Amino acid sequence: MIELTTTRHNELIDPIVHVWGWEIPIYLFIGGWVAGMMILSGYFFMKGRGKEYHCVCYRIPLLALGLITLGMLALFLDLEHKFYVWRLYTTFAVKSPMSWGAWLLLLLYPTLFIIFLLQVPDWISTRWPILHSWSQKLRSVKAITKIVGMVNIVMGIILGTYTGILLSALGARPLWNSAILCILFLVSGLSTAAAMVHMIAKERAERELLARADNLFLFMELLVLALFFIGLLSSTNVQIQSAMLLLNGPYAAVFWVFVVLLGIVVPLFIQNLAVNHKIIHTPVSPIMVIIGGLILRFIIVSAGQFSHYANAHFIR
Predict the structure, then answer these.
(1) Residue 91 neighbours by CB distance under 10 Å
(2) Quick one: which of 293, 304, 221, 299 has its CA closest to 31?
(3) What letter would DSSP give residue 12?
(4) Alpha-carbon span 285 to 253, nearest angstrom
(5) Using one digit for the tens of pLDDT, what is the confidence trace for 230-263?
(6) Residues in the chain with pLDDT < 70?
(7) What CATH homologous superfamily does 6-311 map to?
């Protein structure tokens, strides 16, 4: 049986916060969350739901703009040399994931702002009439909602996968060095986004559609997690050891209870009953999904930092 040595186990008294702290997991979580929201809103626009005034796709942009700003703030707080962050935008390094991410995050703001202009809330347009004027001009463009929808889906997929690529590109960390990680973060982002949008949707049909979509995303997340571990367990010894950190090591209890059970399985069961009209829709399961997605990032980031080749002996 594979077990952690006593010495290494004692070094991981607090497995949730290790080297990076809380800023990077928060940034990765919010990035995936916003990516999922963009994909869902883009889907609604592509399906012609943008013609309906109360469509939930018009409630997402302002929320997404606020969330991505918080994510950028968390990333900024983690930087060692904060006053030199502007240098990222003086060049573009093709082989650098950080360079790609910096420019991608910069492009998110105009993308979300254009969606926001499609339907400016009354309490904002009364204070800034120019936004209402811009909105009318934008909506006069032929097929603008479908164009916006397509751009949102593409940008959302890129952002969601990037949050995983940012970690998987670091080959020195065996737990992160998996192509499945970007798919896992994308699917997790979709499930947390569907859970959030499910709670803020006004129309019953939209709430039910999003709950069904969330069930699909949660099921896909279980499958991707299984593939993630199969890939690690069928690789080299150090990858197997890194997988064991989550399967039966110091991170296992938090992973199995808060991510798998309370973050995926229980919400999937509750929402399945709700969409089949056996119980009423409640915010309980969406909140559990969102918290589970957040804890997943903390677990992956923290365990990944510990699973490096210098510690290849951390499991015997």
Answers:
(1) 9
(2) 293
(3) T
(4) 21
(5) 999 998 888 999 999 999 989 999 999 999 999 9
(6) 1-20, 308-316
(7) Formate dehydrogenase/DMSO reductase domain (1.20.1630.10)
Residue with tokens 């995926």: 264
The whole-angstrom separation of Cα 78 and Cα 21 is 8
SS3 labels along 240-278: HHHHHHHHCCCCHHHHHHHHHHHHHHHHHHHHHHHHCCC
Indicate the residue type of 15: P
Q: Tokens representing 241?
A: 């050891």
Distance CA 249, CA 224 (A): 20
Q: pLDDT digits over 101-146, tens only?
A: 778 888 899 999 998 998 888 888 888 889 889 988 988 888 888 8
pLDDT of residue 13: 33
Reference 116, options 37, 212, 16; nearest CA is: 37
Closest CA to 306 of 2, 37, 14, 86: 14
CA atoms 143, 147, 152, 157: torsion sign = positive
Cα separation, 31 vs 118, in Å, equals 23
Return the ∠ at Cα 180 (arms to 176 and 184), rounded to 5°.
95
Q: What are phi and psi of 241, to 5 degrees?
A: -65, -40
Asked if residue 283 lies in contact with residue 209, where contact means CB atoms within 8 angstroms, the answer is no
Distance between CA atoms of residues 192 and 287, nearest Å? 9
Distance CA 211, CA 199 (A): 9
First to last CA, the chain: 9
| Residue 177 to residues 170, 216, 236, 314, Cα–Cα distance (Å) | 6, 26, 12, 18
